[in-house]
Design goal:
about 80% helix; 8 helices; about 200 residues; mainly alpha
Length: about 200
């Protein structure tokens, strides 16, 4: 009996050790994610300067890079990063308004609606198929695209859905983190907006 109690005690201590190690691993992961986000923001700023693309929406997208990394690991998009991206976009719009050249508010709203609307509908039909975090992130990403042209929201959403579906089918995944595809597709669409969408009648700037 005593040996059984001792074994149980040892098992308990091992489980406690594992839980302690798992709990202490999170701060390091958070620091790593934040460091990557900082590098991503700096890279985005450099790309914006080099390509001449409006840096404001790209910076708002860069803030969501940490959320995308968390989504890959934990299948969730933290609200603090989504709110942070929305705050950055709002602050940059206010600065542009003070300077005298703000984007059209209606275009930002339309971009948010056209990108988030389909995801919200899917979430309402099947919350397990589409998380509400993806819906909230798409509102901010759509508004960022609306800084250039609201129709780009549909372009980015189509790219994200197509690539995510292709990866999911190729790897035979039952579920897939959609946030990283949304963030990457939005950044790609913003960077390609002047090159590939310049011939289009974009008049919402």
């Amino acid at each position: 009996m005593s040996s059984g109690v001792a074994d149980q005690a040892n098992d308990g201590s091992k489980r406690a050790g594992r839980s302690t190690r798992s709990s202490t691993a999170r701060p390091g992961d958070a620091v790593e994610i934040e460091n990557r986000a900082l590098l991503g923001a700096l890279a985005v700023a450099g790309i914006a300067v080099a390509t001449g693309v409006a840096p404001a929406p790209l910076l708002a997208v860069a803030v969501l890079v940490p959320a995308a990394l968390v989504d890959l690991r934990e299948r969730r998009l933290p609200d603090r990063w989504v709110l942070g991206s929305a705050t950055v976009l709002t602050a940059l719009w206010a600065i542009a308004a003070l300077v005298g050249d703000p984007p059209v508010v209606a275009s930002l709203i339309a971009g948010a609606l056209i990108m988030a609307g389909p995801l919200l509908a899917l979430h309402l039909l099947s919350p397990r198929a589409m998380g509400f975090g993806d819906v909230k992130a798409s509102v901010v990403l759509g508004a960022a695209l609306g800084w250039i042209d609201w129709r780009l929201g549909l372009v980015a959403l189509s790219i994200a859905a197509a690539v995510a579906a292709t990866v999911g089918i190729a790897r035979r995944l039952d579920t897939i983190a959609f946030g990283p595809f949304l963030v990457a597709a939005t950044a790609l669409t913003l960077l390609a907006s002047d090159t590939y969408f310049a011939p289009l009648p974009i008049g919402a700037r």
